[in-house]
Amino acid sequence: MTGQQTHRGTIHLEDAEIIAHTAHPGEQFVLTVRAPECARTATAGSFAHIRCDADIPMRRPLSIMAADPVSGHVEFLYKIVGRGLQALSRQPAGARLSILGPIGNGFQTTADKPRKLMVGGGVGVPPMLFLAAQLAAGDALDKQDSLVLMGSEVPVPFPVQASALAANGLDAGATHGLSELEDLGMPSRLASLQGYPGVYKGYVTELARQWLATLSTAQRAATEMFACGPEPMLAAAAQVAREFNVDCQLCLEEFMACAVGGCAGCTVPVYGPEGTAMKRVCVDGPVFAAEAIYPPD
Ligand SMILES: Cc1cc2nc3c(=O)[nH]c(=O)nc-3n(C[C@H](O)[C@H](O)[C@H](O)COP(=O)(O)OP(=O)(O)OC[C@H]3O[C@@H](n4cnc5c(N)ncnc54)[C@H](O)[C@@H]3O)c2cc1C
Ligand code: FES
Fold first, then answer.
1. What share of the chain is helix, strand, coil (3-state, %, to 5)?
2. Do residues 190 and 152 make contact, with C-beta atoms less than 8 angstroms apart?
3. Collapsing DSSP states into helix, strand and coil, what is residue 234?
4. pTM
5. Last residue of one domain, picked from the residues 103, 125, 156
6. Closest ligand 1 atom, residue 251 Cα
7. Could you give the CA distance from residue 226 to residue 116 in angstroms, rounded to a whole number?
8. For position 206, which CATH number holds?
9. Which residues form ligand 2's pocket by a CB distance below 6 Å?
10. Measured distance CA(175)–CA(202) in Å, rounded
11. Could you tell me the residue range of the domain that residue 265 belongs to?
């Protein structure tokens, strides 16, 4: 393989150097690689398909958590499930990884809906952090009226602090957020069933419901919601969005093989006005409208 090739014009194959690779509690790892082509066009919700080890031909998809077109750095957060990510976790800084990306259609934001509610669960948190950073860097967003909610059953691998930024209507136990988002002026809160201090004890979608319940009809019309996480969390997020009549997009993390549209190994039923169509999560998604995945009964 040469250092760099282009696929489909937008998906790049890069021989990426590992810049940093840190282990965190709960078998979580934060990986930073230098992949300039991927960094240049990655958007929140897109992902990269990574060869974890020379002996494991099947790549593993990871959502892009941050991308810096200037340094060419791309960041990921992952939690070991099986053999592939276990092998990836052993790759040291300085090693090189074959990275295919960015892949997929990311979140679409709407200018006339300046309130954004971002809900991430477990390894669904990374795309929400990317989206929050993208939105915070723009000028179309009233940050104080937006909120990032994150659920995790292991400690989040980032600095956390008592938030000075208001998030109305939330349970009194939800006091802490991520320092990185606090620095961006973006309110955030955490949820977990584990009873961590400053963290709401319950499901992250319950916090979403509490926050949306404080908004007037006009405020809800100016709100859009984004969610990524395990399937039950996505179903709950879609239900909450429907309850409050708020537009919602979901990022699916379906099991994948090729990740470039060739094998149909990732198809899901997508519902629309003209009926149901099978769509490939890798290239038709991974972001879909919530009602297309969970249609009303
Ligand atoms: C678009 C996308 C983005 C993702 N982003 C992240 C991320 O940012 N961080 C992260 O940690 N993970 C992410 N994932 C999930 C991750 O790619 C899988 O969990 C991965 O297969 C784990 O690899 P492994 O080698 O650890 O386990 P594997 O050996 O691949 O998996 C162990 C078993 O789990 C099952 N399995 C694995 N993944 C899935 C799945 N997604 N759905 C259903 N069953 C599954 C398989 O049946 C497999 O036998 C993402 C997945 C997708 C599709
Ligand atoms: S994983 Fe092959 S088509 Fe999506």
1. 25, 35, 40
2. yes
3. helix
4. 0.94
5. 103
6. 1
7. 8
8. 3.40.50.80
9. 256-259, 261-266, 280, 282
10. 14
11. 115-293
